[in-house]
């Protein structure tokens, strides 16, 4: 090898070494950047989750405070002669929710179960608020306009059960008007059909009976509503009697409300204020959301 050839070989080796070092450093930077990005993404997800958890917990606490406030307002007035049966149901629902929270305190339950329990506080609060509103003690400052009162809502939740329920609910909302002397009864009749159709659609008699041949049945031999509730809870991986009690009590409450109006026992002249009709709408909307959470897997 001549001196020139030797020098060329050395230069080549140096270039290759330099290139190898640059490649290594480039890969190291890429690797470190990927790790940094993964750490940053994880930390961002943790912060986002914690923020959502704090917001959720604050919302749940607000609902609990709201429930306690509505119950105190309810108990501050003498028992009237109207909505007597529904008042008993409101009080029972509030106690059932409190008992459910007490039984589940300190226990880890499925997320789906926790969602239903948390929604239970909203259900109980809305039922108590409705009763207060019907007794003239509603939040007038939160009244919607008449157009807003009849505006669309819950379309996403109801669309999961078929567009027919969206149409029925739209028709129910359309009947809400303080000028309509039969507004509440018409609304409740349609709303009852919507809620029952949601449960029956998600838990057909045949599916419930097949899953549990020994389930409770009505006099007609079909599974009871409680059997359907149990079927829907188990399908979501929830096997908690206290949660089943809460769901069943909530169904009793909202369907009992409809019976109050259908039977004409509400004791009012027939016309209701926007405050009262809005409270009625809010109560049923929350029930639709509650049943949607129960039914959709």
UniProtKB/TrEMBL annotation:
Keyword Coiled coil belongs to the record: yes
- Segments forming a coiled coil: 7-77
> What residues does the Predicted pPIWI-associating nuclease domain cover?
160-290
What are the record keywords, sorted? Coiled coil
One Pfam assignment: pP_pnuc_1
- The protein's name in its UniProt record: Predicted pPIWI-associating nuclease domain-containing protein
């Amino acid at each position: 090898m001549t001196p020139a050839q030797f020098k060329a070989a050395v230069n080549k080796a140096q270039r290759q070494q330099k290139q190898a070092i640059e490649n290594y450093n480039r890969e190291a930077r890429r690797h470190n950047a990927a790790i940094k990005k993964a750490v940053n993404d994880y930390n961002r997800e943790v912060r986002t989750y914690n923020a959502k958890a704090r917001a959720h917990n604050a919302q749940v606490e607000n609902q609990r405070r709201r429930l306690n406030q509505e119950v105190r307002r309810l108990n501050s007035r003498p028992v009237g002669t109207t909505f007597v049966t529904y008042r008993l149901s409101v009080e029972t629902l509030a106690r059932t929710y409190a008992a459910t929270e007490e039984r589940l305190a300190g226990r880890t339950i499925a997320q789906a179960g926790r969602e239903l329990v948390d929604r239970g506080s909203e259900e109980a609060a809305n039922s108590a608020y409705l009763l207060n509103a019907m007794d003239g003690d509603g939040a007038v400052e939160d009244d919607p306009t008449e157009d807003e009162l009849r505006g669309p809502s819950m379309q996403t939740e109801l669309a999961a059960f078929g567009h027919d329920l969206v149409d029925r609910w739209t028709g129910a909302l359309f009947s809400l008007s303080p000028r309509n002397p039969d507004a509440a009864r018409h609304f409740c009749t349609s709303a009852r059909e919507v809620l029952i159709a949601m449960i029956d659609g998600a838990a057909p008699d045949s599916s419930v009976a097949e899953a549990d041949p020994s389930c409770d049945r009505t006099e007609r031999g079909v599974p009871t509503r409680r059997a359907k509730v149990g079927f829907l809870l188990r399908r979501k991986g929830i096997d908690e009697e206290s949660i089943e009690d809460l769901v069943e009590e909530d169904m009793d409450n909202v369907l009992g409300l409809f019976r109050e109006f259908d039977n004409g026992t509400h004791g009012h002249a027939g016309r209701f204020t926007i405050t009262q009709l809005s409270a009625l709408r809010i109560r049923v909307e929350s029930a639709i959301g509650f049943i949607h959470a129960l039914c959709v897997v």
